[in-house]
Amino acid sequence: METIVKKTDKNQIDKEVIREAGDILKKGGLVAFPTETVYGLGADALQEEAAKKTYEAKGRPSDNPLIVHIADYEDLKKIAVNIPAETDALAAHFWPGPLTMIFEKSDIVPYGTTGGLDTVAVRMPSDPVAAELIRAAGGFVSAPSANTSGRPSPTTAEHVLEDLGGKIDMVIDGGSVEIGLESTILDMTVEPPMILRPGAITADMFEEVIGPVSVDETILGSESKKPPKAPGMKYRHYAPKARLAIVEGDLREEILAIRQLAYAASREGKKVGIIATDETLPFYKYGLVKDIGTRENEKTIARNLYRILREFDEEDVDTIYSESFAMQGIGKAIMNRLEKAAGHLRISAAAVVKEQRYRRIIFVSSADSARGPMAAELLRQEDLEQEYVIDSMGIVVLFPEPANQKAEAIMKSAGMTLAQHTSRQFNDENLQDDVLILAINEAAKSKLLAEYQNAVNVYTINEFAEDETEIPDPYGKPLTAYGECYEVLKVLVGKVAEKLNAFAKGEK
């Protein structure tokens, strides 16, 4: 089958495209189309055979209900019975929009559409292209997400074609969707109404309109063995091809844990993806890092989630690590989708961080212009079992300046560089339990301990390396003196690396 692709602008809808798509649906065919949430795979909701085609195209289990989309509120009464009184108020506030409500079904809705259930899930999308198509198709269009079952939902027509090209009759390309996560599902057959799938419309928003609502406790739980009452709630969904794990803890712990996990994977030659945010992006050094949006506006995260997961598929990564997000507002919907995509695989950030004695190593010298920067760069080149933030700082730095030119010349001759180095003043913000401070000599260590009486993990390089070889001070001397200093530092830093690796292996 050749899949027809037709473009239309929601602000200037091509009536001929809508007419053609509507005719396909009336004849029992399948048409993917944009909504404000994700792209849907449309079929005539009242044709049993059309529902079978939908399940076949998606590879979707036949007990997973389909959502029936309507364009006019009056049509709800044709497909649902015993409609609760609160429905009018909910529809007035949230329809058209990203809300699906579950009701007892009428006889005209086939069991093929409802997954064998006596209930029907109904939504009225706000996207004008979707509304026009629904009317052109006769008023009732079943439309699960237009993707292979279990894959990340499509937010562009290109995503639809990746999964369903050649399997469906037509795709209406209306550009990128607005929200990016599926609709909130509210079960109206129970009292009080229950949220079965979180989305852009939250419990607080419902309660302002109809009073208390309940929330299904399994939303962020493990896979259920019960028949799903709501679409998409039983099976693993939204999943990329790679293994996805959610790293949970406070944000600092999550960053540190993901850094270590990505570093460990890179040492094994594995390709790792990282889901980061505007705020955390600069902290990651290893892995393929993608910016999902800003924590200040989690709607941006929702909009980008499925696109990011699909991009990782294109990059062919082995494992994806994601930060976690707030469990309030739309953050709850984001976490629900991530949980499903990850198959409920979570990693405790605290447990990963706890395994590492030091997270950061700072070499401290007097002016931070030669020996300290050289030592730091040498350690960065070592094959370390664990990942560290490696810095150098000075005890007296009056103003930022580049590394000493002779030190840079020596490092270049060894295939390294200090070109990016700028001297920095050490301060008490660097005194943390997981920071190892290595002073260039005893004098520097004494000054640190005198000025910072609460300092911990402070050693000279010689002391930590268990080697008494003195580190010569080349300042004011010829280039050869810097070369001699480099040779001593290289040996000492190698022993520092050996000791850190021993710690990582639990040997010391």
From TrEMBL:
UniProt cross-references to SMART domains, sorted A to Z: LMWPc
EC number: 2.7.7.87
Enzyme class of the recorded protein, top EC level: transferase
Matching Pfam families: LMWPc, Sua5_C, Sua5_yciO_yrdC
Domain of life according to the entry: Bacteria
Ranges annotated as spanning the membrane: none
Compartments in which it is found: Cytoplasm
A Gene Ontology BP annotation from the UniProt entry: regulation of translational fidelity
Catalytic activity line of the entry: L-threonine + hydrogencarbonate + ATP = L-threonylcarbamoyladenylate + diphosphate + H2O
MF-aspect GO terms: ATP binding; double-stranded RNA binding; L-threonylcarbamoyladenylate synthase; tRNA binding
Domain YrdC-like: 15-201
GO cellular component: cytoplasm
Keywords of the record: ATP-binding, Cytoplasm, Nucleotide-binding, Nucleotidyltransferase, Transferase, tRNA processing
Positions in coiled-coil regions: none
Signal sequence range: none
Main subcellular location: cytoplasm
PANTHER family: SUA5, THREONYLCARBAMOYL-AMP SYNTHASE
Family: Belongs to the SUA5 family.
Name of this protein: L-threonylcarbamoyladenylate synthase
Source species: Candidatus Mediterraneibacter gallistercoris
